[in-house]
Amino acid sequence: MSSKLLRGTFILTLGTILSKVLGLLYVIPFYDIVGDQGTALYQYSYIPYTIFISIATAGVPLAVSKFISKYNALEEYAVSRRLFKSGLVVMAISGIISFVILYFGAPALAEIIINDKDFVSSVADVTTVIRAVSFALIVVPFMSLIRGFFQGHQSMGPSAVSTVVEQIVRIVFLLAGAFIVYKMMDGSLTSAVSVATFAAFIGAIGSLFVLLWYWYKRKPHLDELLTHDKATVDISLPDIYKEIIIYAVPFVLVGIANPLFQFIDLLTFNRAMATIGLAKQSETALSILNYQTHKLVIIPVSLATAFSLTLVPSITKAFVENDRTSLNRQLNQTFQVMLYLTLPAVVGLSLLAEPAYTLFYKHDPLGTQVLVTYAPVAILFALYSVTAAILQGINEQRFTLLSLLVGLLVKLSLNIPLIKVMETQGAVLATALGYTVAILINMFVIKAFAHYRFRLVLRRGLLIVLFTGLMLAATAVTYNLVTLVLSPETKMQSVIILVICATVGAGVYFYLGMRSRLVYFLFGERVDKIKGKLRLPM
């Protein structure tokens, strides 16, 4: 891999991580402004928006960048430019269509979500916030294509910078707008949350300005490439889009999996809670499930999955070359890295649920209870993403749709009955069961088509479970000792508790990994490089 590509990948990864960190930290001041009811309204709009935007854009930057990179390597620069120009029109049209559907479909969607007069929010409230966020759909698809164009030219800076700028502009507008409307102007909570959701449009505009600036700066160089065009390939636009769609669909399915599971909760949770006489508490509980705890649960998933997926290109290469030894080695490493990074994080989050929830939101027994049970489900989120990516690597992405649909069907079938019996915990269990079924299907396909045996992963998995258990024991002892003098009911003391317990837990876990040399099997020479930088004994 060239140093330019390595540098570009690093920049893009850094931008993505920074964006995700910002997307997590803003929830603390936002929750302080709007509270439980405000975050409930917010997630009513943001989950449908996430699904729409995922369908419209998930995979587009990667698909377009792959296509452009392919034809640039052949010095067919005119083909890339033709895709870019027509793609801008297509994305603009798809964005407008998505906006129209969500904007005018908002009342019907709100009627499904809020189907009982006993709820705190009204149909009009939900309609307003959904319509406010829908405007972002006009800009984001258009913007995603420009990012893909730059990435196809191995220029990752524009995508990284625009992603971070989008997040910063969105968060500043969201927090400032909600605070001014609700706290200073004494406006309604619905108005404040509408401003907060409209921030997605403002952030997208900020990102678009960055991308257009990069385009203006680099256009002379891009135009110069056209003068070296070989003009030996004649490919029609329908063929171009067919190639892009085939590549993008698996990313769309993986991208919308989690929002679709949340969307089922959005459509069924309030209804189920109302039937057992808990309509008044329903919206707060749904906000805790779909917004508050979900924001925390998704952290370890994002980092571990991102690291694991860097191995997928090598899986594809081994599969195409029919190198079974290399393929098995890459699959073993992918699963083990994901387990090694995710399992202790989600178990630790479950143990430290009370101070973690207090730090980000407030001390709440229900929030703590949901986080305790929801955090371990994150291991399933990560496993689904990794197995779905492997299916693409072995060219069996068609089964991704099957596993997702079956998983969603399980969730949809069980959600209302389980909520009626177990309330919020029932929704968590239904999600876990749905993901489990989807993962089992993916693993069966991997075993059948890649002839992969899970023996080594199971053996190493048991070792990782053992290390996680020892880490959990050390952290639990530390937590019980610390909470003798500090209370997880206040934010400042929760910070101290989390820092102390996380340090002990991480120290024990990585010490065991080093002593057993497990980290060397998983990360190879990267370990020595990190130790060298930290000046630790080799």
UniProtKB/TrEMBL annotation:
It comes from the Bacteria. It is found in: Cell membrane. GO terms for cellular component: plasma membrane. GO terms for biological process: cell division. Its main location: membrane. CDD domains: MATE_SpoVB_like. Keywords: Cell cycle, Cell division, Cell membrane, Membrane, Transmembrane, Transmembrane helix. Pfam families: Polysacc_synt. InterPro entries: PG_synth_SpoVB, Poly_Biosynth_Transport, Polysacc_synth. The keyword Cell membrane applies. The chain crosses the membrane at residues 47-68, 88-106, 126-146, 167-185, 191-216, 244-264, 296-316, 337-360, 366-387, 399-419, 425-450, 462-482, 494-512. The keyword Cell membrane applies. This is Cell division protein. It comes from Bacillus canaveralius.
